[in-house]
Amino acid sequence: MTTVSPTPETAPATAPLDTPRTPAAQTPPPSMRLRELVFGAACAAAVRAAARLGVADALGETPSSAAELALVVDAEPEPLRRLLRALTCYGIFSETEDGKFAHTEMSRLLREDDPHSLRYISLWCTEPWTWEVWPKLEDAVRSGTSVFPETFGKGFFDYLHQDAGESAQVFNRAMTTSSVQSARDVAELLDLTGVSSVADIGGGQGHVLASLLEKHPSVHGTLLDLPGVVARADARLRDGGPLADRVRIVPGDCREDIPFEVDLYIIKNILEWDDESTRRTLANVVAAARPGARVVIIENLVDDTPSMRFTTAMDLLLLLNVGGAKHTRESLVTRMSDAGLRVGEIHPVNAYLHAFECVVP
Fold first, then answer.
1. Averaged over 31-50, what is the pLDDT?
2. Phi-psi bin for 91: left (phi > 0), alpha (psi -120 to 50), beta?
């Protein structure tokens, strides 16, 4: 690992050996930057290996050597040191002057017990099937369709649940993690003044709904999603849960029908599969809602966002696995307007989500 040694004039006379050091802060020339980018798979693989080995969980509050960590995670010391050295180049772990490794803000996110853990999301984005479809991005760009059926002989979700049970479990954990974390942000953002009833459309296990009901004790909620999904609803919403008396759980498909009327409809991260699904879902909301009802649509954008590298990468993965696409601000506003919604203000939820406020005329 390349480091910059402090000069005699600036270095502490008795700098402790366990002080973390970071790679030199230099901007590489374009030729080297491109070399680094084409080795991006190495970085993704290193993050995956560290997550599966549980290195971040094994590392405590004091720096540890690769040999010490290897005993805990059942690995060979020297290859583990090489893995950690590579990760420190990206700010995932840091290395001390005496060759031990310490946590950074990013490495803590790989811990399973961190409240903002990205461990399962890191695993999901690097599951074995991803390494088979990424090389076929050229084919997807040429055809404009998913490469999954021709690669695995069946659609993405059929493959996941029929042939890749471990990957399906990782998917569920990753989606739950992401939903729980973003639910807090949504609950902080939305003003529910004048709202007595809210529905989470295609709301998965209902984490957003639960967060809203916890914050607003007078509001009642409805969760709509496929039967197999709502069967695993957040425990707070199910019978015996603290919010159950203010919730109705409705098994159904928002692309087919939305059989209730509420003050506020929330649609989060479900308008990305294909245009027909988007059209039908929005049309069903407009048909179900009374005039003046609010509709809040929450999505990742591939423009006008501080997380462009993240959202554009997700956009390409959607193309590969299901033929879907993330929206631009314009494309989403166009689809909402075409459905008959009156679009109002657009607010950032966090670094990777935006909320579009709409009203049913």
1. 96
2. left
Cα(329)–Cα(334) distance, integer angstroms: 9
Query: Strand pairing partners for 266?
Result: 200, 296
- CA-to-CA distance for 279 and 265, rounded, in angstroms? 16
Q: What is the pTM of this model?
A: 0.83
Q: How many CB atoms lie within 10 A of CB 3?
A: 12
DSSP 3-state of 357: strand
How far is the C-alpha of 281 from the C-alpha of 262, rounded, in Å? Answer: 16
Lookup result for tokens 């709202």: 195
pLDDT band for position 3 (cuts 50, 70, 90): very low
Rg value, the chain, Cα? 23
Q: How many residues does the chain have?
A: 361
Tokens of 329: 């601000």
CA 313/CA 24 separation, integer angstroms: 27
Query: Would you report the helix, strand and coil content of the chain in percent, each value rounded to 5?
Result: 45, 15, 40
Q: Can you tell me whether residue 5 is helix, strand or coil?
A: coil
Per-residue pLDDT tens for 222-231? 999 999 889 9
| SS3 state at 201 | strand
Beta-strand pair 294-299/264-268: parallel
H helix runs in 127-246, sequence order: 128-133, 137-143, 148-152, 156-163, 165-189, 207-215, 227-230
pLDDT confidence bin for 307, thresholds 50/70/90: confident
344: which residues sit within 8 A by CB, 6+ positions away? 356, 357, 358, 359
Nearest Cα neighbor of 204 from 229, 184, 180, 177 is 229
Q: Which residue has the higher pLDDT, 271 or 134?
A: 134
Dist CA 293 CA 237 (whole Å) = 24
Average pLDDT over residues 317-335: 92
